[in-house]
Amino acid sequence: MTSTETLSVRPFEIAIPQADLDDLQHRLEITRLPEPAPGDDWSYGTPVGYLRETVEHWRTAFDWRAQEKRMNAVPNFRTEIDGQTVHFVHVRSAVEDATPIVLTHTYPARSSTSSTWSARSPTRSPTAAAPRTPSTSSSRRSPASASAPRSPTATGPPPASPAPGTP
Predict the structure, then answer these.
(1) Domain that holds residue 27
(2) Structurally, how many domains does the chain consist of?
(3) pLDDT one-digit tens code per residue, 67-109
(4) Could you count the other beta carbons within 10 Å of the beta carbon of residue 120?
(5) Is the pTM of this model over 0.70?
(6) CB proximity list for 57: less than 8 A, separation 6 or greater
(7) Are residues 78 and 100 in the same domain?
(8) How far apart, in whole angstroms, are the C-alpha atoms of residue 158 and residue 47?
(9) Are the C-beta atoms of residues 45 and 103 closer than 8 Å to each other?
(10) How far from the centroid of its chain's Cα atoms is residue 105's Cα?
């Protein structure tokens, strides 16, 4: 983009077509999983047991329309920067002289799990404490967390354990 060009910022609503959700539901119903590797842990990738629980959760319990409603409760926008479509949320603070913040995410994080949508987000409640986001820099479970139960609502590899002495 040159200095004479202007960004086109467009409002954006998350609205997945029902046909896409129906297709996903069908694919989840016919999912065939391999036999677990010896130990079925994170050292060889996603454990089959964890994947089975996640598929089952998405098939029977996950409410995509409720998720859409939650994500659309804040103003979403799209723009293009250097040829890449960028989705962002813009929420003004209730405090007039608040310092602006920018929350970004990348794989494996998702914007829907960031504090952007949190009721305690500083953008929604500037005097509330922001939630602590665990590190997701490692795709392997640390020994301290290897036996910790995982929620089937979580996605991707588990977060790395915080350093000793870290709150």
Answers:
(1) 1-82
(2) 2
(3) 999 999 999 999 898 888 888 888 888 898 999 887 776 654 4
(4) 11
(5) no
(6) 152, 153
(7) no
(8) 11
(9) no
(10) 8
